[in-house]
């Protein structure tokens, strides 16, 4: 029994020795890995044991050759910024190389590195700081996946790069600065395994060459955010396995071919932000697997293809900013049970918004603004329990704001409500009419601009504790600005210009937490919007697209009847970027505290009754892009700074200002000093006691009474004085 036990122990010991011998790493490769570790500046790898096959990120085969080097998201950085090609070139049995999500720099154009890795199957160097051009070809005929996305690589992607890529299934070079055409020979009969191509977010240009149709297994083709032009190549419609075509933000033109109906596996079609024209194919609805159709911002026209109502898997339908037309009442949305987002903004649709839309129970966003629709807020909208984005403005016949608000209060998840240019000429619902108000608790954006509404700012708005953006501009709202506006904890965008507001600028408004405290701003963070929001930073600027709710921190109260002084507390709003108080009746000096608004980009105080000087501290407002103090009662020199002098003279006209950029120059410093000195002397002389004249008067009085006083008071002296005068007169006459 004892002998059997000893034999068993020897068997285990010998098997361990054999196992260790099988997996013991090759010493040459161990040295290469150690050299790789030495090239890293941070962090240090715990590669200290004798067997490199046991090191972190290293996997060996049974013969001890390193096959996997996988160190993603380790914070790796290189000393000297030179990619360790020589170290990696010695790992000749490597099949998987993953160094993604680090901070590796250097160039990949190292022939020795690529040519030596003959067994490489997976190459993932994404999310690093690599630069330079690509090597002439891929390193291995076995390679299946290449991900070089999110680096700083540039130059052209040569067709020869794919010369040996017989087994390539995925190629991703997105988020670099590659240029030139998309390689035409990437799809060949020999590369039929290719499934995923991503060229997006680069500088590729020219037309998309034919050849994609040869990729018989291609599923995803992305080349958005480039400079591609021309029409879609016809042979792309031969790639019937395609599930996604994403070519947004290019300059593609022409019509969408009828042959697109061949792509019966297509789930995503994103051709937005191009220059496509013509009508959509009538049989687009044959693409029954379609989930996402994004065709907004093109020049497409014609009626809405009724066949799309058969795409029962549709989740998102965006066709805004085109020239589509027709009667929207003809559309039956009842089959689109999965529809989550509908965007038909800025077209020429007419008719009544179909009630069948309310059968789409998963709808989160509806935007049909800027059409010719007949829209009313119906109680059925309350069946859309997930609705968070509603934009119906710039249509016709949207009336009864009081009833509309009462209904919409029941949409508990509503975050964005845009009803601009609606309810024309009606009165803003007041607090009495909204006495039972308990809705809009999740409302972030309320837009009632250009509705010609009358009345005062209603106090029920004070209950909207999550409100970020309030647009009431271009109405006929009267009364004063309520002080409770300053208590709204999330408000940072307030637009009430072009109304009839009166009274003073309330000091409480200067305490808006989002404009005072960066901490409050950080707590709110970025809030995702169900549909993109388009915001123009200025009147003539191209709208910017945001996928989250974002507006510039902003207070616009221009073109009202506000009066009084601009409160000095305005300097507390340090995160404010735009302030417009133009065309009011503000008086007094411009507060020096405005210079505390270090991030201010737009400051318009024009057409008021402001006096005094432009504060010299304004020279520290380094982010100003628009500035206007014209038509006030300001005087003195314009403070000298690179910023203020860069504005047009019209920004200062209508005052008594001097200095650049105005033509009238201020007096020189010496002249000004001399003038100040003479003025000071004059003031001194004006207030100095005239001692000379006082002494003369006192001397006269003293002499007069010193002589005449005794003559008046003493008779004896008077007789003697008169006798003396008679003698003098007699002597004078004798001498004559």
Structural overview:
GO terms for molecular function: protein serine/threonine kinase activity. Residues 1-24 form the signal peptide. This protein is of the alpha/beta class and 736 residues long. α9 (691-713) packs across α10. The radius of gyration is 42 Å and the shape is globular. Residues 1-22, 670-689 and 715-736 have low confidence and may be disordered.
Key descriptive features of the protein:
Leucine-rich repeat, LRR (right-handed beta-alpha superhelix), disordered C terminus, 23-stranded mixed β-sheet, alpha/beta, globular, 12-stranded parallel β-sheet
Summarize the structure.
The protein is of the alpha/beta class. It has ten helices and 45 strands.
Characterize the biggest β-sheet.
Answer: 23 strands, mixed
CATH class of the domain at 483-658: Alpha Beta
- Helix/strand-derived category reads alpha/beta
Principal-axes geometry comes out as globular
CATH second-level architecture of the domain at 483-658: Alpha-Beta Horseshoe
The CATH topology of the domain at 483-658 turns out to be Leucine-rich repeat, LRR (right-handed beta-alpha superhelix)
* Count of runs of 4 or more consecutive helical residues: 10
Helix content: 10-25%
Task: Give the tally of β-strands.
Answer: 45
**Average pLDDT rating:** 85
Give the oligomeric state: single chain
Please name the fourth-level CATH homologous superfamily of the domain at 483-658.
Ribonuclease Inhibitor
Distance between the termini: 181 Å
% residues in beta strands: 15-25%
Q: Stretches where pLDDT falls below 50 for ≥5 residues? A: 1-22, 670-689, 715-736
Radius of gyration: 42 Å
């Amino acid at each position: 029994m004892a002998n059997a036990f000893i034999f068993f122990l020897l068997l285990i010991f010998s098997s361990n020795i054999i196992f260790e011998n099988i997996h013991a790493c090759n010493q040459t490769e161990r040295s290469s890995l150690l050299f790789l570790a030495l090239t890293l500046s941070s962090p240090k790898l715990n590669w200290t044991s004798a067997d490199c096959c046991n090191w972190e990120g290293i996997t060996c085969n049974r013969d001890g050759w390193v096959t996997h080097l996988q160190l993603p998201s380790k914070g790796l950085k290189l000393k000297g910024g030179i990619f360790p090609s020589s170290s990696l070139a010695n790992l000749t049995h490597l099949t998987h190389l993953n160094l993604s999500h680090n901070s590796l720099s250097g160039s990949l154009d190292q022939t020795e590195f690529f040519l030596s890795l003959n067994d490489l199957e997976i190459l993932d160097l994404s999310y690093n700081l690599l630069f330079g051009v690509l090597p002439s070809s891929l390193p291995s005929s076995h390679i299946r996946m290449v991900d070089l996305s999110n680096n700083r690589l540039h130059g052209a992607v040569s067709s020869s790069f794919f010369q040996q890529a017989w087994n390539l299934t995925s190629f991703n070079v997105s988020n670099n600065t590659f240029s030139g055409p998309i390689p035409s020979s990437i799809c060949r009969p020999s590369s039929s395994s290719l499934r995923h191509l991503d060229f997006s977010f680069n500088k590729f240009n020219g037309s998309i060459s034919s050849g994609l149709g040869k990729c018989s297994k291609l599923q995803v083709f992305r080349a958005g955010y480039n400079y591609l032009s021309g029409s879609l190549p016809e042979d792309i419609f031969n790639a019937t396995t395609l599930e996604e075509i994403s070519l947004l933000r290019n300059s593609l033109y022409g019509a969408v071919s009828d042959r697109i109906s061949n792509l019966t596996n297509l789930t995503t079609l994103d051709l937005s932000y191009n220059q496509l024209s013509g009508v959509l194919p009538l049989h687009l609805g044959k693409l029954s697997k379609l989930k996402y159709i994004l065709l907004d911002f093109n020049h497409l026209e014609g009626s809405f293809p009724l066949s799309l109502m058969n795409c029962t898997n549709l989740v998102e339908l965006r066709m805004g900013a085109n020239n589509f037309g027709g009667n929207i009442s003809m559309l039956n949305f009842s089959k689109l049970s999965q529809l989550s987002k509908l965007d038909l903004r800025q077209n020429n649709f007419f008719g009544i918004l179909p009630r069948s839309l309310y059968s789409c129970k998963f709808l989160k966003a509806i935007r049909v603004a800027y059409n010719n629709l007949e829209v009313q807020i119906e109680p059925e909208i309350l069946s859309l329990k997930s609705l968070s984005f509603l934009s119906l403005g710039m249509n016709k016949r949207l009336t009864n704001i009081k009833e509309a608000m009462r209904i919409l209060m029941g949409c508990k998840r509503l975050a964005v409500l845009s009803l601009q240019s609606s309810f024309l000429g009606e009165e803003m619902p007041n607090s009495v009419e909204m006495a039972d108000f308990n809705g809009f608790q999740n409302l972030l954006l309320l837009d009632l601009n250009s509705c010609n509404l009358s009345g005062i700012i209603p106090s029920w708005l004070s209950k909207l504790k999550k409100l970020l953006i309030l647009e009431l501009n271009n109405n006929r709202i009267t009364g004063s600005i309520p002080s409770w506006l300053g208590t709204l904890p999330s408000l940072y965008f307030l637009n009430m210009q072009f109304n009839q507001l009166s009274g003073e600028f309330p000091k409480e408004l200067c305490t808006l937490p989002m404009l005072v405290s960066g901490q409050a701003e950080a707590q709110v963070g970025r809030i995702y919007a169900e549909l993109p929001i388009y915001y123009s930073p200025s009147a003539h600027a191209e709208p910017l697209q945001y996928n989250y709710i974002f507006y510039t921190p902003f207070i616009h109260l221009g073109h009202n009847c506000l009066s009084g002084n601009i409160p000095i507390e305005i300097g507390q709003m340090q995160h404010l970027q735009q302030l417009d108080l133009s065309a009011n009746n503000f008086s007094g000096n411009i507060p020096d505290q405005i210079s505390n608004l270090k991030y201010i980009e737009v400051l318009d105080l024009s057409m008021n009754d402001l006096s005094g000087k432009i504060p010299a501290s304004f020279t520290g407002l380094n982010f100003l892009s628009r500035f206007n103090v014209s038509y006030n009662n300001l005087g003195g020199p314009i403070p000298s700074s690179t910023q203020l002098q860069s504005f047009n003279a019209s920004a200062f006209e209508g005052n008594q200002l001097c200095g650049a950029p105005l033509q009238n120059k201020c007096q020189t410093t010496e002249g000004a000093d001399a003038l100040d000195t003479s003025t000071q002397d004059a003031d001194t002389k004006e207030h100095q006691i005239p001692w000379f004249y006082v002494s003369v008067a006192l001397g006269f009085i003293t002499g007069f009474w010193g002589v005449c006083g005794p003559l008046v008071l003493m008779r004896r002296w008077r007789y003697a004085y008169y006798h003396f005068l008679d003698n003098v007169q007699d002597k004078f006459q004798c001498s004559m």
